Amino acid sequence: MKKLHVVSLPEKEREFLQTLVRSGTGKVQVFRRAQILLKADEGLKDTEIAKHALCNWRSVAEVRMRYCTQGLERALYDIKRSGRPATVQEDTKAKLIALACTDPPEGYSHWTLDLLVEHSKDGMGRTNVWRVLKANELKPWREKNVVHSKAHS
């Protein structure tokens, strides 16, 4: 059976994809899609490409289809998805991180998640506080993971 979407790369696009693959930087997904397009241009079957790119043959067919119908940019990159914007602003995150790096309130040996929620002046919920700490690899309940000022010790 003849393929519906046959990839035939112009020289300029082939060189761009080869450079992208050789650079080894960027998102793995884009790297894999570039490899798929290069292998498809060589005339390999979807199953062979899938083995080489360590993915499913359906993924190969999808990349080929997107290239043939929507172009190189769409074949390599996902379109921006709609969704709810971030609820926690950058300045709020910075304030929380600064708070977590200070000494805990009197009577406590370290910050806990609940203490940070209670002392956060921005009314952040427990889950958002946890997400900010996790994203910044902060664990204020572990003394060695937080920077404390030794000036008043």
Fold and architecture overview:
The chain has 2 domains: 66 residues; 56 residues. By secondary structure, the chain is an all-alpha fold. The chain starts with 10 loop residues before the first helix and ends in an 18-residue tail after the last helix. Helix 2 runs antiparallel to helix 3 and helix 3 packs across helix 4. The longest helix is centred in the N-terminal third of the chain and has 14 residues. The mean pLDDT is 85. Helices cover 54% and strands 0% of the residues.
Tag the structure with descriptive keywords.
elongated, 153 residues, 2 domains, mainly alpha
Describe the SSE topology.
Elements: H1 11-23, H2 28-41, H3 46-53, H4 57-70, H5 72-76, H6 90-100, H7 113-119, H8 126-135
Total number of β-strand segments? 0
What is the strand content?
under 5%
Our Rg estimate from Cα atoms comes to 25 Å
Determine the structural class based on helices, strands and strand pairing: mainly alpha
Tally of individual domains: 2
Q: So what's the overall shape? A: elongated
Q: Which ranges are low-confidence, i.e. pLDDT below 50, for 5 or more consecutive residues?
A: none
Distance between the termini: 77 Å
Mean pLDDT over the full residue set = 85
The main β sheet shows up as:
none
Q: Tell me roughly what share of residues is in helical segments.
A: 40-55%
Tally of alpha and pi helices: 8
Order of helices and strands: HHHHHHHH
